[in-house]
Specification:
Elements (H helix, E strand, L loop, with lengths): L1 H15 L5 E2 L15 E5 L7 H17 L2 E5 L6 H12 L4 E4 L5 H10 L4 E5 L12 E6 L1 H16 L10 E8 L4 H17 L5 E8 L6 H13 L5 E4 L4 H9 L3 E4 L8 E7 L2 H11 L7 E4 L6 E4 L9 H14 L21 E2 L9 E2 L1 E4 L2 E4 L21 E3 L6
Parallel strand pairs: 2-3, 2-4, 4-5, 5-6, 6-12, 7-8, 7-9, 8-18, 9-10, 10-11
Antiparallel strand pairs: 1-3, 11-13, 14-15, 16-17
């Protein structure tokens, strides 16, 4: 009888794979579920051509293999009713835990969570879990601003080898952003602060930022990077999900700092990314007892924030230098958003009301002073939330070329 039940379950799971981008029981014994194991589902905004989504997909498959559970993945799911419908289909296929990877999926995941209180719903980059009355809805992110700071530090070390390209001892760098959301703003600001921190004495940096109005637009991202280069930016980074910007940098011979993985370009200096495996394993482990964290923030310490600084274009000694900075972040002696290190309209922050509840209105002071250091306390999931709330669009030294939403 047990063999018969196992066979029936296997057949049902095989049928369930039809129409999905990936399934954990396509002959992969390590990720086949036993009869009592949970089945988890992943909803992605794009497919593997997007570096952002591929980072989730790879981590999801790894975590499911490690935990020996079956999985289903659906891709190219728009930030619309399509997300709700995808969640319904995954539940029909047997999924007990669902995860969606894009900011605009949130309202549809919450609606599905309300309809299915017995299913766990998890969402990346969202803001509503703590404020909602849904016990089965959870947000997750990571302190990626620390990874971006370290990648920026690697960029600054590279600039120290390019002093002939500084104008009046100032390096002009560029950044391709997707949207003017706090997630992107926090990222480019922390990256820029890392650049500045690494520069040799007597040298400064300024940065121009341009937005594409899309998470994934290869032509638009390439064009944006080309514009920055034409305006004199001697090194470019990005928070956008295609190979557009790295390709433009490669074509122009301009150093590039990537996001979410290696570009395999000769101009790549470094990259940072969120490693989602720790969260997915947490999600799988905790779902049975309904103890998934309401608002989870992965860190450098638990391996959720990663950086790679030995790209083909990196300066000699970069790895050791950045590792030393990482140690200071880990022991708390260095804060990325140390308010003494940047100004806004010529002044250092002593108080700042951030939008913590996700209603786009400032509501909570997030400036803290600990051990004599005053800093912007970003992504504090225990007290505030995991998703970034650093939304100061342009600290001094940063210029926005546009605020294009597409």
């Amino acid at each position: 009888m047990k063999k018969l039940l196992t066979l029936v379950l296997a057949l049902l799971m095989a049928v369930g794979c039809v129409g999905f981008a990936g399934c954990g029981n396509n002959g992969d014994d390590e990720s086949k579920p036993e009869s009592k194991d949970p089945v988890v589902g992943l909803i992605c905004l794009h497919g593997e051509s997007s570096t952002y989504d591929k980072n989730f997909i790879d981590a999801f498959k790894t975590a499911c293999a490690n935990k020996k559970v079956g999985y289903k993945i659906v891709v190219d799911i728009d930030e619309s009713q399509e997300c709700f419908d995808a969640a319904e289909e995954l539940i029909e296929e047997g999924c007990k835990v669902l995860f969606a990877d894009s900011f605009g999926h949130e309202q549809y995941m919450m609606a599905a969570a309300e309809e299915h209180p017995d299913i766990e719903f998890c969402h990346a980059t969202g803001t509503q879990a703590k404020q909602s009355d849904l016990a089965n809805y959870h947000n997750a992110f990571a302190s990626i601003y620390e990874g971006r700071y370290l990648a920026g530090y690697a960029a600054g070390l590279k600039l120290n080898t390019m002093k002939d390209q500084a104008v009046n001892n100032n390096f002009k760098v560029g950044y391709v952003g997707a949207f003017t959301y706090a997630e992107v703003i926090s990222g480019y600001t922390s990256w820029f602060l890392g650049v500045q921190a690494a520069l040799d004495e007597g040298y400064t940096a300024t940065m121009e930022v341009t937005f594409t109005g899309s998470w994934y637009d290869e032509a638009g991202e390439k064009s944006a990077a080309e514009t920055l280069i034409s305006r004199g930016c001697v090194l470019v980074s990005q928070h956008a999900d295609s190979m557009g910007a790295p390709t433009a940098c490669e074509n122009a011979g301009v150093p590039n700092v990537a996001y979410n993985g290696s570009t395999n370009k000769s101009t790549m200096v470094a990259y940072s990314r969120i490693n989602w495996v720790p969260y997915f394993e947490h999600m799988i482990d905790k779902y049975v007892n309904h103890t998934i964290a309401d608002d989870y923030c992965g860190t450098l310490a638990n391996g959720a924030v990663e950086y790679f600084v030995a790209g083909a274009a990196a300066a000699e000694g970069t790895q050791a230098a950045v590792d030393a900075v990482k140690a200071k972040l880990l022991d708390g002696s260095l804060k990325v958003f140390d308010c003494s290190k940047f100004t806004v309209n010529g002044a250092h922050l002593t108080e700042y009301l951030a939008d913590i509840d996700g209603n786009y209105e400032p509501d909570t002071n997030v400036i803290k002073t600990v051990n004599g250091v005053t800093y912007f306390d970003e992504s504090n999931a225990d007290e505030f939330r995991s998703a970034p709330y650093f939304d100061i669009a342009a600290i001094d030294g940063i210029t926005l070329l546009n605020t294009n939403f597409g």
